Amino acid sequence: MFEALTPVSEMLARNLDVLTQQPLLVCGLLEDNLPGMLAQAGPAPRIFTTDFRYFQWQEQQGNSQIEFGVQPTQGAPGLLLLMPKAKAEAEYLLAACLPLLAEGAQLFMAGDNKGGVKSAPKLLAPYADQVNKLDSARRASLYQAELVRPAAPFKLASWVKGYSLELEKAQAPLQICTLPGVFSAGHLDSGSRLLLDNLGNLKGRVLDFGCGAGVIGANLLKRQPELELECIDISALALEATRLTLAENQLNANVYASDGLSQVNGTFNHIVANPPFHAGLKTFFHTTEALLSSAKNYLVHGGSLTLVANAFLPYPELIEKSFGHCETIAVNGKFKIYRAVRRS
Ligand SMILES: C[S@@+](CC[C@H](N)C(=O)[O-])C[C@H]1O[C@@H](n2cnc3c(N)ncnc32)[C@H](O)[C@@H]1O
């Protein structure tokens, strides 16, 4: 899945002489075996990732120099940041990694020209006096700088943002905590809203699949504190946001990393999801496709899967194929809510 080198790594392959002069801490948008390429040409890099799928894949490759979480605990003589999708996430990663590097460390930033890498000079300005563009090819660019101003100790709390979510009846609003790059920072997504409005009364063990900032799970627990809730996500930042959201509202759930249902055990009375969707991103479609085909095995007899999806996605056929039926229980302009019950 991560076998082919991305155009960014192909461009980095032309710069191995500078990149391998010191062991690097590599982080950001890791989508291939760039760490393997670096290790072949020079000292093995350390990897820090917030993506559980990438973490598992590197571990399967036998690479133990990898950390998964919200911040790395070990630095290296240099840093290579692969520009993540959100600029705020790049700022976050620099703030989390740079306190682990010594003054004078080499800093590299690389990424697709359309993915915001051109903001490297601005992003590195708080830490460096001069930012040089070393290369630009295959629609990707590489920037270099030297750490001249040591970074302040990293404080996760200063990256947490939040918003209040009004609830029905006379309940106090829910406080939702988010971190950079976590879905629906700042407001409740309209698909998630439609899902919440159509979940009805649940019971027993419930799985919040792809929990994001924990907005679905926190709503469910607030309505029905007796539920036994599990929240899973592939992103360490989403999982941390969910933990913070639950704590902020004095709610409890089992929150853990899982790529799809891979780390989930046992069966549930309900699985609820606003699954990942991004036009053109195959991995996201595969995640949802895999959920739809295997969810049944993770449900008790009579248990239900309820999900919200963009109305044009071909999910009803996939649900029918697995469950033998698929009900559309709500529709608005953009989204549909599908439900299926395990009958066999
Ligand atoms: C559309 S967001 C929904 C977030 C949250 N439930 C809400 O309604 O605001 C989808 C979530 O799925 C997560 N995700 C993406 N791929 C995943 C995978 N393979 N396994 C588990 N979660 C995944 C994303 O990190 C993201 O938080």
Automatic annotation (TrEMBL):
Xref: HAMAP family: 16SrRNA_methyltr_C
Organism this protein belongs to: Oceanisphaera profunda
Stated role: Specifically methylates the guanine in position 1207 of 16S rRNA in the 30S particle.
EC number from the UniProt entry: 2.1.1.172
Enzyme's top EC category: transferase
UniProt entry keywords in alphabetical sequence: Cytoplasm, Methyltransferase, rRNA processing, S-adenosyl-L-methionine, Transferase
PANTHER family referenced in this protein's UniProt entry, alphabetically: RIBOSOMAL RNA SMALL SUBUNIT METHYLTRANSFERASE C
Intracellular or extracellular location(s): Cytoplasm
Catalytic activity annotation: guanosine(1207) in 16S rRNA + S-adenosyl-L-methionine = N(2)-methylguanosine(1207) in 16S rRNA + S-adenosyl-L-homocysteine + H(+)
Gene3D superfamilies attached to this UniProt entry: Vaccinia Virus protein VP39
Family of this protein: Belongs to the methyltransferase superfamily. RsmC family.
Protein name as it appears in the record: Ribosomal RNA small subunit methyltransferase C
Lineage of source species: Bacteria, Pseudomonadati, Pseudomonadota, Gammaproteobacteria, Aeromonadales
Database matches in SUPFAM superfamilies: S-adenosyl-L-methionine-dependent methyltransferases
Subunit structure: Monomer.
Keyword Methyltransferase: yes
